[in-house]
Amino acid sequence: MADYKYKRLSCHMFYLTNNIKWIIQVILKSVAVSSILLLYLLICPVNVLAQTAGKSSIEGTVVDDKNLPLPGATVVLTKINDSVAYKITQCKIDGKFIFYNVVSGGYQVEVRMVGFKTLMKSNIQLVDTLYQLGSLKLSPESKMLNEVLVKYRQPVIDRQIDKTVVNIDKSVLSVGASVLEIMGKLPGVRVSQDGQISLNGKSVSVFMDGKASLLTPDALANLLRGMSSSDIQKIELMPQSSAKYDAAGGGGVINIIKKKNQDDGFSANVNIGAGFGEYGRYNSGFNLSVKGSGSALYINSGFLSNKFFGKSTSSSDFYSKDGLLSSKLLSSDKNINVDKSASPSIGLDIFLTKQTTMSISGSSSFQNFNKNIVAHTNRFNTNDLNLDNTDLLNNSDTKSKNYSGGINLLSHLDTLGKDFSINIDYSRYISNFNQNNDYSFYTQQSEPTLDRTFLMQGSGLNIYSIKSDFYLPLRSGARLELGVKSSLVNAKYNNNYTDSSIVQNDNFNYRENIDAGYVNWNKKFAKLSMQFGLRAEYTNGTGELISTGEKINNKYFQLFPSAFFNYKFNDNNTLNLSTNKKVNRPTYANLNPQIIILNSTTNFQGTPSLLPVTAYNSSLTYSYKDEFYAIFSYSFWKNDFTNWLFPSSDQTSTTIKQLNNKYTKYLNLTISNTKSITKWWTNTNTLNFYKQPFKGVFNGIDIYDSGAFSFDVETNNSFSFNQWSLEFTFTYEGRYQNINRITEPRYNLNLGLKRLIGNRGSFAINCNDLLNTFKDNYLLNSVAVKTLSNNRYDTRYVRATFSYQFGNTKNKKRDVSDGAAEEKNRSGGVKIK
Q: Which regions span the lipid bilayer (predicted)?
């Protein structure tokens, strides 16, 4: 035993030593590269300033009558006594704007925004390198309609040329809701009940303030259920991304942006909610910020306690190699789930200088998810004669702890837009899953035979990441972006299975290092703007299943080009063309060859030989008045992932394996229109069409499917009168095919009402799936096994939420990205049912 402990300690020391060596090497490399680039940037101003001699910058911040920032406000710069616009820009999310490379002279600034009076700032004499306009306050337009005061309201859904922004803090339906509920209501987004998320029919990476989740789909769903919408400002849907982003995420990025703070002082918000469907559900949380002249502190926390049910019936038909039906399985089950989670986080911004800020952040999540299943299964032959039966009592408990921390340094090297940033991140993820199964096997002629199994699964991941980005303005308005990144992931999985006859212990270890660099060049002309990018990534992954000695060795180098073109015909008509190459790497769990029991008839097993998916994406977007959008996209995914069912030799169970097909083609057409019908009524309608042909060889069978046309339609309507707000959405999802899975049509109706209480309080009541029609019925066709599943979940419920704000409620924090986002997104992949 002592010798075993010594060997185990030696093994740990070996891994620790290697990790420390890697970290030191990466830091030395990064410091060397950063020093060279920084030296170049320090020398470069001589050339840049020579090119921009006699030119200056004008900057300012646009706010409303309550000193809240007005993102999206249009700022027009014109020369005095000249009606032609010299430069035009829009305010960023913090309300700030800046004009670069402005020739010295006299100017005037005009600020416009729908719902506010136009502001004119005249007699601006530009002689210095930077002219500060300070805060420009816009006064809201208002008028009386039948003695009701009506004010402009920012739309919930804001379509932009390169992304769709859903303003969660403006949505009545989001009040008191979880983020998972919100995700399922976003345009073009589908969320299955096990947490699988897709955008325009394609798998997508989910980020939260630039930090992607490492959880399995079930655990991710639980985390999003426990995250309150009161912490969320907006959600960005980005089907295309530039070379700056990690190459992972072939279907795009969904970025969940939390509420931030920016102004001085103390502010806090507390919220509490309760609801009921079949069972009760509760949530609460708080946000606190304190900001002074030299630093800012942010503390957030949320708590969730939900109880909900799921019901399902399924039939599986087993076929022989010659295509003849050989047996059938019929099963039904009901599960009751209890989910509790807490997610505290803390952040500190230190303003080293006016141009340099260092941010230190830490977050954690603690989850306890319990599931109880009662299931019954019958097996029949081809003549519908009962062969045998199985009853199952299943109890599972999942406890997970997630920790992450990072340091971010951002420096504005000059007033011309030259920036430098560096991120260092570390994440630790731990999950323990315990499952007890009590079986009763019997036939029509025999007494029940009892059996019991125990399954203990544990997983742990350590993720180290360092990245650096540089932004350099060039002559004639061009801009250059450069960046490097290196990451290391150590993943460990253990699986201990015990039944009446065997005890099986397996351990799987995986280690992956990715080194990357990118360059982006963009340029704006009178009507045309363009951007070209190239990203290079080298992947080195090694893994081993200890019990069998089976090893994984993946080493490959890839280039990922991207290009974006935007042509503005006039103020009303714009055309955008974008294309890029991306990759979807297998999750670490999907490389693990361990067999994991999901339920009485279904297992899951990873595939060590699984190849990464190479994704080629293109899209063409037409916009009219920033209200109407028509988007056509085409993607070709080589080696796309496909879930395939393999029958056991006695055809009493199936095993899910993720395989590579030859290719999948994704065709998508989106038509969207947002219109302010009146100042108190905003309407958004979205129509999506899909088709997904695919080809592959599965279990020795060559398959080609031309795919089926699918569509969905959504309408969102929001109303605002005085202290009252009303919002409802209706969604219809047509019959939908995703490779070998066909989901039947479904629809739902959601309704929300909100009442402001004074200037700081609010009370909202929401009803989700009012008609109780949002079900999940699908056919999974794996040729040798065809499974038809009908599922109903606890989707109809009513929730009431109260929130109250203290102190200065206008604060907003600087957004900090996470260098380890892509690695975190790949830890999931195993569904526990």
A: 20-43
Partners of 392 in the β-ladder: 375, 439
Residue 41 CA neighbour count, 13 Å, CB half: 24
> Which helix (H) or strand (E) covers residue 495, if one does?
strand 479-498
Q: Could you tell me which residues are beta bridge partners of residue 602?
A: 654
What tokens does 771 get? 């008609």
**Any residues with CB less than 8 A from the CB of 535 and at least 6 apart, and which?**
243, 244, 247, 516, 517, 518, 559, 560, 561, 562
Region of residue 181 (left: phi > 0; alpha: psi -120 to 50; beta: else) = alpha
In a shared domain, residues 179 and 309: yes
Domain stops at, among 109, 141, 173:
141
Task: Looking at the structure, tell me whether residues 88 and 223 fall in a common domain.
Answer: no
Q: What is the pLDDT of residues 361-409, one digit of tens each?
A: 998 888 898 999 999 999 999 888 988 999 999 999 989 888 889 999 9
* Together in a domain, 759 and 693: yes
DSSP state of 262: -
Both tokens of 96, joined, read 């700030």
In a domain, 747, yes or no: yes
DSSP state for residue 116 in the 8-state scheme: B
In a domain, 829, yes or no: no
CB count, 10 Å around CB of 424? Answer: 20
Same domain, 525 and 455: yes
Q: Of the residues 110, 141, 172, which one is the last residue of a structural domain?
A: 141
Please state, rounded to an integer, the average pLDDT across all residues of the chain.
Answer: 81
The tally of domains found in the chain comes to 3
Q: Which structural domain, as residue segments, surrounds residue 628?
A: 158-824
Alpha carbon of 664 to those of 585, 612, 644, 695: distances in Å?
Answer: 16, 14, 15, 7
* Bridge partner list, 655: 603, 646
Is 396 within 8 Å of 832 (Cβ atoms)?
Answer: yes
The model carries a pTM of: 0.76
Q: 531-545, 567-581, 585-599: which range is least confident on average?
A: 585-599
Q: Running DSSP on this structure, what letter comes out for residue 277?
A: S
Phi and psi angles of residue 224, each rounded to the nearest 5 degrees, phi first: -70, -30
Same domain for 225 and 103? no
